[in-house]
UniProtKB/TrEMBL annotation:
This is SNX10 protein. SUPFAM superfamilies: PX domain (SSF64268). The keyword Membrane applies. The gene is Snx10. Belongs to the sorting nexin family. Gene3D superfamilies: Phox-like domain. It comes from the Eukaryota. PANTHER family: PX DOMAIN-CONTAINING PROTEIN, SORTING NEXIN-10. Transmembrane segments: none annotated. Keywords: Cytoplasm, Endosome, Lipid-binding, Membrane, Protein transport, Transport. It is a peripheral membrane protein.
Amino acid sequence: QLPELPSKTPFFNMNNPHHVDHRRQGLQQFLEKILQDALLLSDSRLHLFLQTQLSPEDMEACVSGQTKYSVADAIHKFASLNRRFPIEEEERKKGKKDADSDSE
């Protein structure tokens, strides 16, 4: 039994800090409840949701063995593709551009 998701505000506005904060708090509480349930915490779908960017359909196919990759493979593949934090990636690209311009 999943905890209930926080209700959506019919007139939600991304530009309204109160709406955004209220929704964020509700989603945080939802996630905390899930992470405190041992049965839910052991579910492969949860791990795929938290650790990859697969669509729900692809997650379900992976969990049910309908893909050429396992749940662990999917998580490792995503982790290897995204092993850098965005700021590190920007700094790496900037350093490469600086080095290229110095060699000209």
